[in-house]
Amino acid sequence: MAYVVTETCIRCKYTDCVDVCPVDCFHEGSNFLVIDPGECIDCTLCVAECPVEAIYAEDDVPDDQRHFIALNAELTKHWPPIVAKKTAPADADDWRDIKTKLHLLER
């Protein structure tokens, strides 16, 4: 079972989770992060570090976010790994409480 980044991360893209990942399983798009399910070792460290609570165990992903399981797996094949924390986008705090953002995902 892998962990999954869900919709809340879009346009926030805080990278605190990346900093604690022991296996570098995160991949970075221009406005979203994903977890490679083949690399994730289910350590749970990233969950507590996410300031917008966007990361779930695969079995715990809310029903309305289940499509993010496949989306994480798909996008890890196209996006480069990210292995160090970066500064969040300047407007990240403006987006943190907005829940419906899938239409803003930049592939």
Annotate the secondary structure layout.
Blueprint lengths: L2 E3 L10 H5 L5 E3 L4 E3 L9 H5 L5 E3 L9 H10 L15 H4 L12
Antiparallel strand pairs: 1-4, 2-3
Give me the CATH architecture, please. 2-Layer Sandwich
- Outline the biggest β-sheet: 2 strands, antiparallel
Instruction: State the CATH class.
Output: Alpha Beta
What global shape is seen?
globular
Q: Order of strands in the sheet with the most strands?
A: 1-4
Count of DSSP-assigned helices: 4
> What is the string of SSEs from the N terminus onward?
EHEEHEHH
- Name the average pLDDT: 97
β content, as a range?
5-15%
3D architecture notes:
This protein has 107 residues and is an alpha+beta fold. The protein has a single domain, classed as Alpha-Beta Plaits. Helices cover 22% and strands 11% of the residues. The chain has four helices and four strands. The protein has helices at residues 16-20, 45-49, 67-76, 92-95; strands at residues 3-5, 26-28, 33-35, 55-57. The strands form two sheets. A two-stranded antiparallel sheet has the order 1-4. It has a two-stranded antiparallel ribbon with strand order 2-3. The longest helix is centred in the C-terminal third of the chain and has 10 residues, at 67-76. It is globular. The mean pLDDT is 97.
